[in-house]
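hi! just following up on the protien thing from before. the input was this:
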Amino acid sequence: MTRGSARSGDTPSPGRQTKTHDSAFLKACRREPVPHTPVWFMRQAGRSLPEYLKVREGTAMLESCMRPELVTEITLQPVRRHKVDAAIYFSDIVVPLKAIGVDLDIKPGVGPVVAEPIRTRADLARLRDLTPEDVHYVTEAIGMLTEELGSTPLIGFAGAPFTLASYLVEGGPSRNHEHTKALMYGDPQLWSDLLDRLAEITSAFLKVQIEAGASAVQLFDSWVGALAPADYRRSVMPASAKVFDTVAAYGVPRIHFGVGTGELLGLMGEAGADVVGVDWRVPLDEAARRVGPGKALQGNLDPAVLFSSAEAIETKTREVLDAAKDLEGHVFNLGHGVLPTTDPDALTRLVEYVHESTTR
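and the predicted 3d structure came back as:
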């Protein structure tokens, strides 16, 4: 696995991940032979599960992310129900921003909303460094989770610098990212400094999760599909590469995922991930050609397929598995997050089908 230049003070702790080392998920990430194709789902820990809705009732999203016992329960729910091959830590990409004092909230039906957008050099000074003490509840929750999960890997995650910058600059979700692009094109030095600062914050957040026991990490770049490849290479890729390089010395697999990123897949692979996530728009065999050798792929069933008949779900799943048959490594996932009204039983049956169809 590629090694990065760890900063002074880094304390790689591979021993904490030893019990998950031979899991199907981590083997696939390392492009090693697997007993079956491993499965997990983005947004698997919530939204579609009645037990999630029950335990979250009356608790705001950000508050939920800061209560270790609640985080532990929510993270474990899909592992118990669906028998997925990996758990993903229950949190939100804006948690580290909230932890360093950014005035933001997650509004139901809207998403993260920032009270005072960051658009000037003076605004940049409001983004201080993230310390482990800022997110002590993350360390506590992951400690609890790794004890409960045993040999099942836990995936840590963070938002990529571009997507975090988009929320901060726009003040919330945006369809066209006009303020973000205006800053990127109009003041490239401020933009570069903003993304570099966010890369440091993101790296610190991932390091906390890895040192607490996460067996892999995923960088979500949800909005980066809004960019042309040349803009991505020049204005975004250096910051994402910095994140991957900073955590490389820990030796855990690093996953990179974005939405609508078919034209960016090769560049996303170049940024330094070990596994490149693919949404449903590009078949996995074509995605492998674009990414190039030396990377595992993750994906990529269309989440909407799960609203169809059992026969149709199996047919479309078979198409994904067939497209993945020659990959160096494959982690089965949806091409985006689980939709809120998805039937949980459909997810359980999907896991069973993938496992049964790919058992060696």
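Confidence is low (pLDDT under 50) at residues 1-14.
The radius of gyration is 19 Å.
cheers
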